[in-house]
Amino acid sequence: MILSVGSPRAVANGERMLVDKENLSVMPQILEDRTLVPVRFVAESLGAKVDWEEQTQTVRATLSGRTVTLVLGSDSMTVDGKSVPLDVPAQTLHDRTMIPLRAVAEAFGKQVFWDDKGLIVINDQETQDYDSFTVDVLLRAVSVD
Fold it and tell me: What is the secondary structure of 51-118 as a DSSP string?
C-alpha cells in the first residue's frame, strides 16, 4: 500500500484509488509528530474486517486471527486483549476515524516505510530505504492529478 501525507489518493493491492470516495478531505495527516490514517481504508486494504460500535466509539479490526481494538480518544489500543500504548489517540477528523499508522500496521505484522517527503509504504516485507528517485516515483503514483 502506498499513501502520501496530504493526498486523498493511494495505491492498494496494485490499484490506484481514493482513500475515501465520499470525502476527499480524508487523507493521511500529521498530528503531534505522528501520522494518522483512516482506519477503514488501511485495515480493509490489508484484508482486515472492520467493525464500528457507535455507542462505545470503538473500532475493531480483525486480520488473520489477530484483533486490534481502538476507542476514540484513548491513549492505548488492545491487540488480542493486551493493552498497547499509543503516542496519539484514535480520533475523528473529517467525520472519519483516524488512527496512528505505525502502531496499527505493526500490530498486524506489517512493515512501514516513511520518508520526510510524506511517502508511506506499508507491506509484508522488511522495509528498505528507497533512493530519492524511487520516492519521487512512488509519490507521483499517489499525487493529485
Answer: EEETTTTEEEEEETTEEEEEETT-SEEEETTEEEE-SS--EEETTEEEEEHHHHHHHTT-EEEE-TTS
